[in-house]
Specification:
Layout: H1 3-6, E1 8-14, H2 19-33, E2 39-43, E3 46-53, E4 56-63, E5 68-73, H3 77-84, E6 89-92, H4 104-109, E7 126-129, E8 138-145, E9 150-157, E10 160-167, E11 171-173
Antiparallel strand pairs: 1-5, 1-6, 2-5, 3-4, 7-8, 7-11, 8-9, 9-10
Length: 175
């Protein structure tokens, strides 16, 4: 069994509002300690939400699970210690002090795997937006950010070409 197969999704509880700071701190520790093979993904799942203020529509990103950060990692004493002692982390989710990995069903039902998918779209490709406030729009990919799992697509908004950052799951390539 390879190390890739051993990596499972775990959930850590954080102080409210510290999710992004915890994510950044863990990613920095992973870089500093060269633990990329053991702590592979750190995500704060976000979703777009349309807010209407003063009669104007505004798209804001809301945390899907406020107070929680998801990690794809190989659980061992070192990774447990690094994550557990990261500033802002209060605990792993699980009974007592024992972290419990999410089951495959939980991972898929929570939509986590859609955050780590790869995309076969490159700069210059035509894409269709399939979800979010720009659904049913088409545009040209200007940039692909594999680390953030986002693409920047040039969309025609009010007759002007406008760059819009979208999640991989929000776009489909046009054949």
């Amino acid at each position: 069994m390879s190390e890739q197969e051993c990596a499972k999704w775990y959930v850590v509880h954080t102080y409210s509002g510290y999710e992004n700071k915890v994510k950044a701190n863990i990613e920095k520790l992973v870089d500093n300690r060269n633990m990329h093979d053991r702590i592979q993904e750190v995500i704060v799942p976000l979703e777009d939400e349309v807010e209407i203020k003063d009669g104007k529509k505004k798209v804001v990103q809301r945390k899907v699970f406020p107070g929680y950060v998801l990690l794809k990692m190989i659980m061992d004493d070192d990774t447990w210690y690094v994550v557990r002692n990261t500033r802002g982390v209060t605990s792993f989710v699980g009974p007592g002090s024992k972290p419990v990995a999410l089951t495959e069903d939980e991972v898929y039902s929570m939509g986590i795997e859609s955050y780590v998918e790869t995309i076969d779209i490159a700069e210059g490709d035509s894409v269709s937006v399939v979800s979010g406030p720009f659904a049913e729009s088409t545009g040209i990919v200007k940039e692909v950010n594999a680390n953030k799992h986002t693409v920047v697509v040039m969309l025609s908004i009010f007759g002007r070409e406008t760059p819009v950052e979208l999640d991989f799951s929000q776009v489909r390539g046009l054949a």
